[in-house]
């Protein structure tokens, strides 16, 4: 997909054989961290880490490459890597108008579309949940906007959704016809899919056939069942146990009508309330772990060249981190090139063995400096700079 221009902070790298050259002067550091959710964007994390490194090792050569795994912050990471910001007026998860952004690299026609920006939990009016009726229609409109802008490759990041409609709204916005027994369009949301009698996807935007769509997700759940979209993620979106039963049954029926349920068990089909399934079946999407896709799009391999240390991280390093989150993806890619990796985080819930298994030599947590979680959130930037000074002292000598 090409590489991006990567911003650098600090002094140029010097020859390690030069007289008086310190370890810090000889080491190039790549900061490739995700956001600290609720406190700092990925770009802000990189900025604070760079500031702390500069104080402790003024001559270190620092490169910042904010990353994301397909959820909230994915578009921001692309923008930080040089993509252009584009906006479109779309339909929010409850039908209200919202303005959503996507990122476009015109040089090769790559667009990064973040589902959370059109159909995300953070867009629910007043924070109220709507597990049965929230729609992905706006995500389909955002995809159409990217096609209108000339996108030939679309990375669809599907984390942070408010929906469990199997991507049905998305398909309808792109020209699919989903009708009940009376020939009327089914209503919005997952529960309405129980009334689905006919699905005709022949009217989908013809440009999709000429467009590479990549489904970027950090989960590989199937569409239905005990590991499915409704059972695992429905409660996070406000679904009661009874709602989960309704949604799971409706999604199973939806899949039976769309393709006989043939692709419902595929990895990623259950991502974002089944939007993964809609993308696989209707858009011809290819599923890939979100962080792998984004490292490719952002030009991680190029940024890694010549690096002697990688600093990754996210708000909480915990069991979820080990299942496809950004820090593990970064560590895996860096370690494959023989580059050591350390992590920064707000909260650390992994022991040394788990970190080592993920390819992370050591992790530094804000709670090591400030045990009060609320103060950690409020003062994340300055604390992160102090943490980065520790990293510099320990690893840049």
Automatic annotation (TrEMBL):
It comes from Streptomyces cinnamoneus (Streptoverticillium cinnamoneum). It holds the Pfam family Gly_kinase. SUPFAM superfamilies: Glycerate kinase I. InterPro entries: Glyc_kinase_flavodox-like_fold (IPR018193), Glycerate_kinase (IPR004381), Glycerate_kinase_RE-like (IPR018197), Glycerate_kinase_sf (IPR036129). Keywords: Kinase, Transferase. Residues 1-20 are annotated as: Disordered. One of its GO terms (molecular function) is glycerate kinase activity. One of its GO terms (biological process) is organic acid phosphorylation. Belongs to the glycerate kinase type-1 family. This is Glycerate kinase. Gene3D superfamilies: Glycerate kinase, domain 1 (3.40.50.10350), Glycerate kinase, domain 2 (3.90.1510.10).
């Amino acid at each position: 997909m090409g590489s991006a221009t990567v911003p650098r902070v600090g002094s140029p790298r010097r020859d390690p054989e030069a007289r008086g050259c310190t370890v810090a002067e000889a080491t190039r550091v790549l900061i490739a961290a995700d956001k600290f959710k609720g406190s700092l964007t990925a770009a802000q994390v990189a900025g604070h880490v760079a500031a702390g490194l500069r104080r402790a090792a003024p001559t270190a050569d620092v490169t910042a490459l904010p990353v994301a795994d397909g959820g909230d912050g994915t578009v921001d990471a692309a923008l930080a890597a040089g993509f252009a910001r584009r906006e479109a007026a779309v339909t929010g998860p409850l039908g209200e108008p919202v303005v959503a952004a996507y990122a476009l690299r015109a040089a090769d026609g790559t667009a990064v579309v973040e589902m959370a920006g059109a159909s995300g939990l953070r867009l629910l009016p007043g924070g109220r949940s709507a597990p049965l009726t929230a729609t992905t229609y706006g995500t389909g409109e955002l995809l159409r906007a990217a096609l209108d802008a000339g996108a030939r490759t679309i990375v669809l990041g599907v984390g942070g959704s408010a929906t469990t409609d199997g991507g049905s709204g998305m398909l309808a916005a792109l020209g699919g016809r989903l009708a009940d027994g009376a020939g009327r369009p089914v209503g919005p949301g997952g529960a309405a899919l129980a009334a689905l009698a006919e699905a005709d996807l022949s009217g989908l935007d013809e440009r999709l056939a000429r467009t590479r769509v990549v489904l970027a997700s950090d989960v590989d759940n199937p569409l239905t069942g005990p590991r499915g979209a409704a059972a695992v993620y429905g409660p996070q979106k406000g679904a009661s146990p009874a709602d989960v039963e309704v949604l799971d049954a409706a999604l199973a029926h939806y899949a039976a009508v769309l393709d006989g349920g043939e692709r419902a068990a595929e990895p990623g089909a259950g991502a974002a309330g089944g939007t993964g399934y809609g993308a696989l079946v209707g858009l011809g999407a290819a599923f890939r772990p979100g962080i792998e896709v984004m490292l490719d799009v952002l030009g991680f391999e190029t940024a890694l060249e010549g690096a002697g240390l990688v600093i990754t991280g996210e708000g909480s390093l915990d069991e979820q981190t080990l299942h496809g989150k950004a820090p593990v993806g970064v560590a895996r890619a860096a370690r494959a090139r023989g580059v050591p990796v350390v992590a920064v985080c707000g909260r650390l819930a992994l022991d040394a063995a788990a970190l080592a298994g993920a390819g992370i030599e050591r992790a530094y947590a804000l709670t090591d400096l400030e045990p009060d979680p609320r103060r950690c959130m409020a003062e994340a930037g300055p604390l992160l700079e102090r943490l980065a000074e520790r990293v510099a002292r320990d690893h840049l000598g």
